[in-house]
């Protein structure tokens, strides 16, 4: 199924040059027809594919996943009122949760999909690190799995300069323990976004990402990971 037309990219190209409420109000119809409604259909259809792959995923509506195009400018030096992209986050806790999930980001400039944990509180970061530390062999097998590496490459994220001492020895073999974020991405071309196989492509990416997402999710569900103490030494 084809979800988007070139009007999708044209809208965001023009918005980037006319980022104000008056312009948006005057172009509300094209926004709805070229961007809002097609993206909502894509998200709705993707949720159905997600449930097929992960039947225990909680039932959600598209609005539980889709971010508003309006920017929060209250504490930002950038006062442009609108984002120049659409995005959705598929996560068991909803789009505002810190739990691991799958992210879709479409724009006229750069489009990509990916997943992992992008923003983590100190307590949740500790859970992720403990999961990696206690289940290190499983983690290394997942991030080095050929289909994951060939699709997403390495796990990304900003890093701490220091670690709690209990992690330092294992971190010599797994530097990712220093990370404060754990995410992975793959770019989408305009041809892919306009193509009839977009949903199938996103589903294939989710299928590849699912094992590492489940690994991270276990950190939020299991308080004691001592059962998989296979330290990578």
Topology readout:
Elements: H1 7-17, H2 21-26, H3 28-53, E1 85-91, E2 101-107, E3 111-117, H4 122-134, H5 136-143, H6 146-152, H7 165-171, E4 182-188, H8 190-194, H9 198-221
Antiparallel strand pairs: 1-2, 2-3, 3-4
Helix pairs in contact: 3-9, 4-9
General description of the model:
The chain is of the alpha+beta class and 233 residues long. It has a single domain, classed as 2-Layer Sandwich (BirA Bifunctional Protein, domain 2), CATH 3.30.930. The chain has helices at 7-17, 21-26, 28-53, 122-134, 136-143, 146-152, 165-171, 190-194, 198-221, and strands at residues 85-91, 101-107, 111-117, 182-188. Helix 3 packs across helix 9 (198-221) and helix 4 (122-134) packs across helix 9 (198-221). The protein is globular and about 60 Å long.
Task: Output the keywords.
4-stranded antiparallel β-sheet; 233 residues; alpha+beta; disordered C terminus; 9 helices; BirA Bifunctional Protein, domain 2; 12% strand; single chain
How many structural domains? 1
Query: Would you list the SSEs in sequence order as H and E?
Result: HHHEEEHHHHEHH
Look at the helices and sheets and give the structural class: alpha+beta
Into which percent range does the helicity of residues fall? 40-55%
Give the terminus-to-terminus CA distance. 49 Å
What is CATH's topology name? BirA Bifunctional Protein, domain 2
Beta content: 5-15%
Helix count, per DSSP?
A: 9
For the record, the CATH class is Alpha Beta
- Radius of gyration computed on alpha carbons: 19 Å
How many strand segments? 4
CATH superfamily: Protein of unknown function DUF1054
Question: Low-confidence stretches at least 5 residues in length (pLDDT < 50)?
Answer: 224-233
Indicate the CATH architecture: 2-Layer Sandwich
Q: pLDDT average, as an integer?
A: 93
* Outline: globular
